[in-house]
Amino acid sequence: MNESGNTILVTGGTSGIGRALAHEFHALDNRVIVTGRRKALLDEVTAAHPGMVGYVLDVDDPTAIRDFATMATSKHPDLNVLLNNAGIMPIEDLTADVVDVSAAEAVIATNLLAPIRLTAALLPHLRRRARSAVINVSSGLAFVPLAITPTYNATKAAIHSYTMSLRRQLRETSVEVIEIVPPGVQTDLMPGMADNPNMMPLHEFIAETMAVFRQKPTPSEIKVKTVGFLRDAEAEGRFERTFETLNGSH
């Protein structure tokens, strides 16, 4: 993937990792399009980045995704990079007398169905571009789950698997498929994460991630060093120990 000269669509671009990546790609002379649910936040982000464009998009609505893809490729025919970043991470109590699955259903819709739907809607356009990319954000928790967020972990594991299959199917096309595998990062994805000293500072994560993006060729997995604790646990024969360490206080 080239560092500059792209037109990049970033879902969930109004906060956290998505907003920070949108900022970095914009600074590298890419045209950046961000989506989010709240117009006020979109206006705030785009006002701070002249030339950046924002659109309200409910990624849980399959019709809205199809309509958005049609509009986006019409208004931005140079669109060549999709960054599927939008996600939610609620805590779920599976020990309750009555388990409410509505949170799990929302996580599946946002974290898994949305990127699959948006990728499918944009792939015909991306395949017609001379160089293009789909970038999916998974998580270190795809490889070692955090027990209090079971559906989040499951969706990120599914995104990892989906990304591998997508990469294989598109290997003879112009579409590069890249996976970003974050560790715990200081964002507002969950209450308390932004101030948690055990999480990686956002600016450090972004700096290391962008350094990996600058490698040629771009690695198929973008991994900062600290995520290796989770990403490589099974391969290194320490999965059970890592699982217990991660979940010891939960």
Q: Could you walk me through the main structural features you see in this protein, from its secondary elements to its overall organization?
A:
The protein is of the alpha/beta class and 250 residues long. The chain has one domain: NAD(P)-binding Rossmann-like Domain (Rossmann fold, 3-Layer(aba) Sandwich). Helix content is 43%, strand content 14%. It has 8 helices and 7 strands; from the N terminus they run E-H-E-H-E-H-E-H-E-H-E-H-E-H-H. The protein has a 7-stranded parallel beta sheet with strand order 3-2-1-4-5-6-7, with helices on both faces. The chain starts with 6 loop residues before the first strand and ends with a helix.
Order of helices and strands: EHEHEHEHEHEHEHH
Mean pLDDT: 97
Residue windows where pLDDT falls under 50 for at least 5 positions:
none
Q: What is the CA-atom radius of gyration, in angstroms? A: 18 Å
CATH topology: Rossmann fold
CATH architecture: 3-Layer(aba) Sandwich
Say how many strands there are: 7
Ends: how far apart?
Answer: 40 Å
Summed up, the helix count is 8
CATH superfamily: NAD(P)-binding Rossmann-like Domain
The fraction of residues assigned to DSSP E strands is: 5-15%
What's the main sheet like?
Answer: 7 strands, parallel
Helix content: 40-55%
List the strand order in the largest sheet: 3-2-1-4-5-6-7
Structural class: alpha/beta
The CATH class, by name, is: Alpha Beta
The general outline is: globular
Number of domains: 1
